[in-house]
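Quick one:
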Amino acid sequence: MSQARRCRFVPVVRSLALAHILLFLPLASRGADALPRRTPNVVIIFCDDLGYADVGCYGAKGYQTPNIDRLARDGMRFTDFYVAQAVCSASRAALLTGCYPSRIGILGALSPKSRTGLHSNEVTMAEVLRERGYATAIYGKWHLGDAPSFLPTRHGFDDYFGLPYSNDMWPRHPTSGTNYPELPLIDGEKVIELTPDQSRLTARYTERAVGFIHTHRDRPFFLYVPHNMPHVPLFVSDRFRGKTSRGLYGDVIEEIDWSVGEILDALKRDQLEKDTLVIFSSDNGPWLLYGDHSGSAQPLREGKATSFDGGVRVPFIARWPGQIPPGGVCREPAMTIDLLPTIARLAGARLPANTIDGKDIWPLWAGEAGAKGQEAYFIYWERELQAMRSGPWKLHFKHSFVKPNPAGGGGRPGKYATLKVEKSLFNLADDPGELKDVADKNPEVVQRLTSLAEKVRIELGDSATGHKGRGVRQAGMSDGLVRGNR
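Output:
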């Protein structure tokens, strides 16, 4: 299928977008005075454990998401967008740094009082944009270290309000409560509440976001809203409780959709719609272990904590009126690591001096014919390379994975069974559920992808093959003996 068919767009608007591409050449190749008078505001709304099929425009049933669907109508919806790893901290590290988590040592989900966190030498999207004069804020879940040296205010954010890690890391956890302290709500760098009312979190984050937009309406800003929901335990305000036929999970999603609408309305009130890039996505797929308190990744296979597409393929929508074609649908693969270089380009900002793994994919967002993402995207679980995506092909290397058996319900987890997948190749264009291994029929594809994987193992390592990775850097340590990057 040609790119012109894979990414639908309106030709007149595409012409505007292509003209805009010429305007936003990298700062290094054009003088600062060649930049437009105002660079775009950037808003990223990032859900927690939201599944591929959990919003209306991706097939959700039992509840409505009119505001998220409006984003898709007004912008570009990606059908094959990936996170770098199907778990909280690793996924967020990739989003904010443009690096695979294994490169920067952020693996899995960091626990409270972890000595490990995002290294001070790693450059976040907030730092890249703040150097260009952006006001920066995060309202929601951080999960890149809760020691003072790891907090968002030490990594480029002017303002922070939210939880430092997942909302289930508290004494009420159904199976591990004794492992966790009371849940801290942080404002800036100060804990202002312990175990806050979680039914108010979505609204409180939204209120702060709307206020930030209005306060900074006269200068460029970067607003990051990483909701705690719909990660378990699920909480919803009285306003949305009992509204949907999908139960508590559907109620939670409708409140998130309301939050998206409030942010969009704030941009409209302050006449910032045409000046603002808005992105909506999720950190990984649904946590199927929790049954009716988890979402759906249909028609994809498995969910969170696996390298199948149900774990790592997520909804992704980008809207920028006049620059991103309305109603576009892009079927080219892309990944969160690509956001930092793409947004840096639009802001006229320099990329970090450290090696990053993302690629500028603005031509995909703009609907440019023939545009493509990277040749391949690599999917790790911790330091093990488990799978990779290239064009329509998904290659799995032999590895173990978890599957609910049985799933839980009512807010309690079920039990995991551990299964194995052999080295196998899937054509996702024909088989999005990764059910039919076609490796024997496509040996040349397997050979090509295996060769690419071997190069990545040399650079980023692979615990399954014993590769250490020559390009791996260490995470930060909070004991004052911060390890230097290698």
